């Protein structure tokens, strides 16, 4: 029982950015702050910092905005360390901030996240499966290649109208290579989902890649085929 009480006597709020994590620890009536790099070394430093402050890592409740950019990897790594990562959803978090009389935008800060964590104790987040994470990475890579193709198409027209025939021909070859890469990515994505039926629909599919969406998440896979 003492161990359980100790777990729930400390709460952490983490604000994420591309390069940094801003962490706030509420423990024993104190408010402690730490800024770390948003990478593997930073996650380990965060664990060490918490342990140096006599905080039990296993079962420690940590609140993050999982809809914020650059939060996914940090959330997965902290969960693997044994922390109870909680998703501070926008609606309840902003309502809490308003009830506290805080200005708009304050709900994104690590201090508010930590205090919300202590007050609301939101349910722990369940990390996605490795297969789902891999699917999202494939889709992001496909998006990057398709964006590059779109840019090259725009340059292709410019070279043609400027009479730059050699550049025009070279760019046509490069676009053909990108088309091959796009087909390879689509094939790999379809094969991945066949190997892992029942995956949830990733947000990257919203309004994009209708062929993939229909095939992988439609009736064709309802029977596990």
Q: How is this structure best described in words?
A:
This protein has 225 residues and is an alpha/beta fold. The chain has 2 domains: 2-120, Nucleotidyltransferase, domain 5 (2-Layer Sandwich), CATH 3.30.420; 130-221. It has 8 helices and 5 strands. It has helices at 2-7, 40-52, 72-80, 90-99, 110-120, 130-161, 165-195, 210-217; strands at 10-16, 20-27, 30-37, 61-64, 84-87. It has a 5-stranded mixed beta sheet. Strand 4 (61-64), helix 3 (72-80) and strand 5 (84-87) form a beta-alpha-beta unit. Helix 6 packs antiparallel against helix 7 (165-195). The longest helix has 32 residues, at 130-161. The chain is elongated and about 70 Å long. Residues 1-7 and 219-225 have low confidence and may be disordered.
Task: Could you tell me the CATH topology label of the largest domain.
Answer: Nucleotidyltransferase, domain 5
Give the DSSP E fraction (strand runs of 2 or more residues). 5-15%
Helicity level, as a percent range? 40-55%
Compute the separation of the termini in Å: 49 Å
* H-E order: HEEEHEHEHHHHH
Radius of gyration: 23 Å
Q: What kind of sheet is the major sheet?
A: 5 strands, mixed
CATH class of the largest domain: Alpha Beta
Strand order of the largest sheet: 3-2-1-4-5
Instruction: Using the 3D structure, state the CATH architecture of the largest domain.
Output: 2-Layer Sandwich
Q: Tell me the count of domains.
A: 2
Mean pLDDT: 86
Shape: elongated
| Class by SSE composition | alpha/beta
Number of strands: 5
The total of helices stands at 8
Which parts are unreliable, with pLDDT below 50 for 5 consecutive residues or more?
1-7, 219-225
